[in-house]
Specification:
Elements (H helix, E strand, L loop, with lengths): L17 E4 L15 E4 L5 E6 L3 E6 L4 E5 L4 E6 L8 E5 L4 E6 L2 E6 L5 E7 L4 E3 L20 E6 L5 E6 L2 E6 L4 E6 L6 E8 L5 E7 L4 E6 L5 E3 L3 E2 L8 E7 L2 E6 L4 E5 L4 E6 L11
Parallel strand pairs: 15-19
Antiparallel strand pairs: 1-2, 3-4, 4-5, 5-6, 7-8, 8-9, 9-10, 10-11, 12-13, 13-14, 14-15, 16-17, 17-18, 18-20, 21-22, 22-23, 23-24
Length: 286
């Protein structure tokens, strides 16, 4: 899915996207990762995605989010009207809600009936009924005063809380009421990425990565609000900003603009291994 851009010869933009199988037999695999299908329909590069076993959600520079049926290979819906690039997307299977991020807004879509935007959340913690961006026909570059770019969002595993990285902090949203209840603070540079896991005591374990080179850990009990400081700073830091994080069991991986990847033990909270020049440029995804 490195470039899910539509083929110009496929007709007008009114055409729905389609997931096409890629030629070659599965038995003749030569590489560890073999591309089996390509989803085509976006008119500009794809920046983010989320998926379940049956559904794929893609966000693009074409200012839309597309919803795909992975069983039939068809585009189900296109969620439009974003002020600029769609940079982060999350689907909550518990509620049937989709959250898409563009500039300083999180649009909340209910896809259970017809896909419509039911709320717009802002980086400063405002809740606007319906689609606050519906009137933006042209691409919006500047943010409204008091608002900041939202870089990434993450849902907790139970689907009760949404975390949104904006500026040097992470805003906590309680999803039952769609209300902001607090902030994760402590970084001295913009928070670029975050991931959420559950602790043994069923608390949210939020890991954040920032342009300040640091990865921080926050443990949050259900319903806890206000300003929450980190429970741990991972040392030693990267040599440049953190771009991506991934948790696998008790292991955390961090990727950075320093071209390196670090592997951390979440239980012991210490560095296990590092690959200083894993790539020739920024490590942007894990």
């Amino acid at each position: 899915f490195s470039r899910l851009t539509s083929n110009q010869s496929q007709g007008s933009a009114l055409d729905k996207g389609i997931i096409n199988p890629v030629g070659g037999s599965r038995g003749a695999r030569t590489a560890p990762l073999q591309c089996v299908s390509v989803a085509e329909g976006h008119t500009k590069p794809v920046l983010c995605l989320d998926a379940t076993d049956e559904l794929l959600f893609t966000g693009s520079k074409d200012r839309s989010c597309k919803m795909w049926n992975l069983v039939t290979g068809q585009e189900i819906a296109s969620l439009k009207g974003h002020p600029n690039n769609v940079v982060s997307i999350k689907y909550c299977s518990h509620s049937g809600l989709v959250f898409t991020v563009s500039t300083s807004y999180i649009k909340v879509w209910d896809i259970r009936d017809s896909a419509k935007c039911i709320r717009t959340l802002t980086s400063s913690g405002q809740v606007i009924s319906g689609d606050a961006c519906a009137g933006t026909t042209t691409r919006t570059i500047t943010s409204v005063q008091g608002e900041h770019q939202i870089n990434q969002i993450a849902l907790n595993p139970t689907g009760t809380t949404l975390y949104a990285a904006t500026g040097n902090s992470v805003r906590i949203w309680e999803l039952n009421r769609l209300q902001p209840i607090g902030k994760l603070t402590g970084h001295i540079g913009p928070v670029m990425c975050l991931t959420v896991n559950l602790t043994a005591s069923n608390h949210d374990l939020v890991i954040t990565g920032s342009k300040d080179h640091y990865v921080k850990m926050f443990e949050i009990a259900e319903g806890v609000g206000g300003n929450v400081g980190p429970t741990h700073n991972f040392e030693p830091p990267h040599y440049d900003g953190i771009e991506c994080l991934a948790i696998q069991g008790d292991v955390l991986f961090s990727g950075s603009r320093d071209n390196g990847i670090k592997k951390w033990d979440l239980e012991q909270q210490e560095l296990i291994q590092q690959i200083p020049n894993a790539h020739k440029d920024w490590v942007c995804a894990l």
